[in-house]
Write a structure and sequence with these properties.
Number of strands: 10
Mean pLDDT: 91
Shape: elongated
Number of helices: 0
Strand content: over 45%
Radius of gyration: 20 Å
Strand order of the largest sheet: 1-2-3-4-5-8-9-10
Distance between the termini: 30 Å
Amino acid sequence: MASGVYASGEELTVPEDEGRDFQMFNLEAEYAVRYTKLAGEYTHTSFEATGATETARAWFVQATQAISPRWFLAARQEGVSAPPLRTGTVVGERRSFHSVEATVGYRLTHDFALRGSFTNRKAYSRTTWDQQIGASLVWARRWW
C-alpha cells in the first residue's frame, strides 16, 4: 500500500495551495509446484484529478510450464482500466487495455534461450485486436 502527494500545488498547470493525493493498493500471489508456476498481480490506484477522484486498475495472470530440461511454455493475460479523459466539462469514456500472450521457448545454454510468441492485444483507443508474432534470443545471467 502507498499513500501520499503525487503532484505538488506548484507542479499543476493551474497552481493550487495544496497538491494532489493518491492511494495505491497492490496484491501479488505466486504458486509453484513441480514444473509449473502460476503468478498474478492486481493494483488499484485512486487519485485526485481536476474536479474528481479517479481510479485506475491493472492486473495480470501468468503461467509457465517446463516440459523438459530445455523446452518450456508460458502464457500471460493482462489488463488495464484507465480513467476517462476530462477536458473542461466533457468527460470521455473509460479506456482499457487487454493482452493475451503465448510463448514457447528452448534453452540453448544455461545463459541463452530462444523464444517464439504470439500476442493478441487491444490498446486503449482501439476497437479491434492486433495480432503480433515475435521471436527473441534472450540472455539471462546474473551480474553478481
